[in-house]
Amino acid sequence: MKRTLSSAICTLVSVPSHVMLPKHEEAPSTLQRPLSAMGEACSRMDLTTIYQILVITHYKDDEETIKESQIRNASSYLLKKHRV
């Protein structure tokens, strides 16, 4: 008896994929280093601890941005005041 393409496909469809696919061996786990205090705080989304770490380490990257923002706000205030 000759099998048609449709009957062959129907037979394949009825076989679960885990039977047709070869078993995958577990990939060897890569060694992970422990997270830093900042990494731990970030993974927990603990904003209080993140802030404390930034203060303790004297993080100053935002100072320039804050100064620029203050200058812009003061400039726009003065411009509005003098337009009236």
* Low-pLDDT regions: none
How many strands in all? 0
Q: Which structural class matches the secondary elements?
A: mainly alpha
In terms of DSSP E residues, the strand content is under 5%
Q: How many H/I helices?
A: 5
Q: Shape, please? A: elongated
State the order of secondary-structure elements, H for helix, E for strand.
HHHHH
Q: Biggest sheet, open or closed, and with what strands and sense?
A: none
The portion of residues assigned to helices is 55-70%
Overall pLDDT confidence: 75
Global Rg: 32 Å
Head-to-tail CA distance between termini: 97 Å
InterPro entries: BSK
Protein name: Serine/threonine-protein kinase BSK1-like
GO molecular function, one term: ATP binding
GO cellular component, one term: endomembrane system
